[in-house]
Amino acid sequence: MSGAGKSGAAIWAYPWDLHDIGLETACARIAEAGIDMVSLATSYHAGRFLAPGNPRRRVYFPQDGTVYYRPDPARWAGVEIVPLMADVVAQEGCMLAALCDRRDAGGLAVSCWTVCLHNTRAGMAHPDHVMRSAHGDAHLYALCPSSPAARAYVTGLVAEVSHTFRPDRIEIESPDFMGFSHGFHHEKDGLGLLPEDTFLLGVCFCAHCMARASGAGIPAAAARAQAAALLDAAFARAWPAAQFPDFPATGLAAFSRHPELHAYLCWRPEPVTTLIEELAQACHPDSALMLIDAAETWWGGIDLPAIAAHVAGVIHCAYTTPPGQIAADLAQARAALGPGKRLVAGFQVCVPPLAGAADLALRVAQTRGLVEGHNFYNLGLIPPARLGAIRAALAR
Questions:
Q1: Which of 38, 133, 243, 283 has the most CB atoms around its CB within 10 Å?
Q2: Angle at Cα 79 formed by Cα 75 and Cα 85, nearest 5°?
Q3: What does the pLDDT look like over 68-113, one tens digit per residue?
Q4: Beta bridge partners of 43
Q5: Per residue in 261-298, pLDDT tens?
């Protein structure tokens, strides 16, 4: 049942799509495409999804910040932030339980695709535990990895899901600082944000971060003042003008002439790494804990070499990566992970960014000899006929 090594290919899927397609029909399609694992959304956020792969819910608005299984109230007694079960589970049944039962009878492997800190519903209900900018403004879509309550919520999810269902793996998404770029409803920006502005707006200075950083000897108050002053300068200009023209090419070193801010930025991976360590400790040993990652996630405090000790591996999403860059990025991720860890390549099968079947085949071909598996996004968001492109890409 266990195993980072059980699946060669997986497909991300939403429970409502499996309900509407029918579990047996969906699993038959998935297996026909050369895929042997379903990565089922177990904790997820809101959105508006066009679903050509779904025969009933063609346009769907999922509930925000819910879980797709039945939480045990006793496990969550006295916990500040608790999971909310999605209505579709109460009304149509627990697809995670059904998939795991099918797996135990010889069916497809199961992974729990678990969104961690990206939760607007929980953020609005618990604003003291969300990320906050240098000016104190709340990012309500992002629980903060420094918040003890947010950490307890995410750790509780991983513990409950892994011990209750024993999935083959758990894929954690957004255990880090989400940043300012999000895709929120009707976002407005008349300033013309430069990369440095976007980055600084996404650096969290909430009370939990300030206390945690200060306790580590970081000059947090001075760092917040420097970040606020830099943003104020950007907001005061008539037209955008870079204060850090070498950002993001030089990474955090671009801010080195602001030593307090630079020290704070270099500290930021600490709450992320230790949260993932706690998730690994909470996870049942039968379930392999995998991080969903991508290029440039250092923006959110991901330190892959530090995290590698706590995960079974990484799903590196190369959704928009030019084909010629995929192998180099995967090699870099492999070097950061070190030996004995599983590396999986994640690809969209959506248009855009995908141009067609030949484009997908080219992208998958770049991974040969570099990865132990592939994940494809997403079953309900593509026409069933497009699954053939996955089959052809894997067969080459």
A1: 38
A2: 65
A3: 999 999 999 999 999 999 999 999 999 999 999 999 999 999 999 9
A4: 67, 114
A5: 999 999 999 999 999 999 999 999 999 999 999 999 99
Give the separation between CA 269 and CA 264, rounded to whole angstroms. Answer: 10
Q: Is the pLDDT of residue 305 over 60?
A: yes
CA distances from 356 to 247, 350, 359, 381 (A): 33, 9, 5, 15
Beta strands 59-60 and 49-50 are antiparallel
Report yes or no: 345 and 375 within 8 Å, Cβ to Cβ: yes
Residue-wise pLDDT tens digits, 194-235: 999 999 999 999 999 999 999 999 999 999 999 999 999 999
Nearest Cα neighbor of 380 from 11, 14, 9 is 14
Mean pLDDT of 242-250: 97
Chain-centre distance of CA 16, in angstroms? 20
Amino acid identity for residue 388 in this structure: G
Closest CA to 10 of 338, 305, 290: 290
Which residues, including other chains, have CB under 8 Å from residue 30's CB and lie 6 or more apart?
Answer: 11, 13, 38, 108, 379, 387
- Hey, what are 290's tokens? 């995998």
The residue ranges of every structural domain in the chain are 9-131+138-177+269-395, 195-267
| H-only helix segments in the chain | 15-21, 23-32, 87-92, 95-104, 120-125, 148-165, 195-201, 207-215, 220-236, 259-267, 269-282, 304-307, 323-337, 357-365, 387-395
185: confidence class by pLDDT, cuts 50, 70, 90: confident
Number of neighbours of residue 284 by Cβ within 10 angstroms: 17
Q: CB pairs under 8 A, 24+ apart, for 44-47?
A: 44/14, 44/68, 44/113, 44/115, 45/115, 45/118, 45/119, 45/120, 45/141, 46/120, 46/121
Cα–chain-centroid distance for residue 87? 23
Nearest CA to 179 among 197, 153, 158, 154?
Answer: 197
Superfamily designation of domain 9-131+138-177+269-395: Glycosidases (3.20.20.80)
CB-CB contact of 6 with 35 (8 Å): no
- Is the pTM higher than 0.90? yes
Residues 6 or more apart in contact with residue 22 via CB below 8 angstroms: none
Burial (Cβ within 10 Å: 0-12, 13-18, ≥19) of residue 351: exposed
As a whole number of angstroms, the distance between CA 218 and CA 224 comes to: 11
Whether the per-residue pLDDT at 243 is higher than 90: the answer is yes
